[in-house]
Structure prediction request, 286 residues.
Amino acid sequence: MDVIVAGSRAELDEARAALGIGARWGDRDGRTLALVPTMGALHEGHLSLIRLAKEHADHVAVSIFVNPLQFGPNEDFSRYPRTFEADVAACRTEGVDIVFAPSAEEMYPPDRQVSVSAGHMGTIVEGAFRPGHFDGVLTVVLKLFNLVRPSVAIFGQKDAQQLAMIRRMVADLDVPVRIIGAPIVREPDGLALSSRNRYLSPDEREIALALSRALHEGAGHRTPWEIVAATRQVLDAAPLTVDYVVLADPATFAEVADDHVGEAVLAVAARVGTTRLIDNVIVTLP
Ligand code: AMP
Prediction:
């Protein structure tokens, strides 16, 4: 069956029914559905999530929605890349069953009042540089969950704090969706794939390689202090503006203490020209 493109709630319900998926959430007698939420401008990173989704459910839905709620007033909402036809074609090639691409009007009634608060965790690290961002992310993701009603949802480790926040929301609000994290897909030279890489000029792309190089350098050290210092040193040598370098607990995003043992996420954000990039790597402290 060809991919079904749904733009409204009604079309989404029809698409679910056409696949034989029960109307109730997590319908166990019916077929299972996985959701891959995206903002479109699909690349190999997104496609890896779709492939992982297929391993975990009978059917796959991809949502494409550039969520105005998660962009700050001076961020790139209006110029964010929109490549809808190519995205649908890529979904078709990957065997996606449903593309859900609502308009902002479909998602947000003009009289909306209530939204999800990301709590303290939404104000630290990435949240400190993007006030309100995680509230916007969690609000749209919960709405997408309520509309699509998947049994599983796939998110990339690329947005490590987002993944942690979504796990937290699902636990705190008893959302019946299993969350699966997917590894970061990189270019052969190390650059993490991102829809925002399209903004980079060839020179800027070269400079942007400092992020993955810095993480690689940092991950080679043993103590939190050395790891962060080594990462920062590589970034400081490049013509970019560092927002943060942090070694954090992967579940809470609190900075780890210097005697921390076990897994931690080494996360960076930097601006190359006008483009803001994030990247991270998981390190294990002995
Ligand atoms: P976005 O369209 O940027 O909102 O991303 C949609 C999903 O794709 C999120 O769960 C991201 O973490 C994930 N994603 C983006 N880039 C990558 C990548 N390079 N590798 C793996 N997942 C990614």
Q: What stands out?
A: The chain has a mean pLDDT of 96. The pocket of adenosine monophosphate is lined by residues 38-39, 45-46, 48-49, 155-156, 158-159, 182, 184-185, 192-195 (CB under 6 Å). The domain at 4-182 is CATH 3.40.50.620 (Rossmann fold). The first strand starts at residue 4 and ends at 6.
